[in-house]
Specification:
By secondary structure, the protein is mainly alpha-helical. Helices cover 48% and strands 0% of the residues.
Length: 103
């Protein structure tokens, strides 16, 4: 079993607090809560932008016509959100807004 398949099996990529990823997410967001970084750093919770319908369509071996349509303009790299603009565009917007709002 490949590492990616094992991680998918272990975490099922469900929701923003999936398995092994939550400790990593918590560590990335920790500086926002530290007084010495107040107003100097921001965190954007990118897991909130994950498209579960796309992930299901990509992972399904026998896709319906709707799933084929959903999956057609994506890469095969699930760990990069399948290269889907539907993920990256709103994340980029949120990152820009977070930077703009820093004091």
């Amino acid at each position: 079993m490949t590492l990616i398949k094992k991680i998918k099996k272990d975490t099922h990529f469900q929701g923003p607090h999936s398995g092994i990823y939550q400790n990593f997410r918590d560590a990335q967001a920790a500086p926002v809560k530290m007084s010495e970084f107040k107003g100097k750093v921001a965190a954007v919770l990118t897991e909130n932008f994950r498209d579960h319908k796309l992930a299901t369509a990509r992972d399904n071996k026998e896709r319906t016509s709707e799933e084929e349509e959903i999956a057609k303009d994506t890469s095969n790299q699930g760990f990069h959100y399948y290269g889907a603009a539907k993920f990256f565009a709103p994340v980029g917007k949120s990152l820009a807004e977070a930077l703009h709002n820093l004091t």
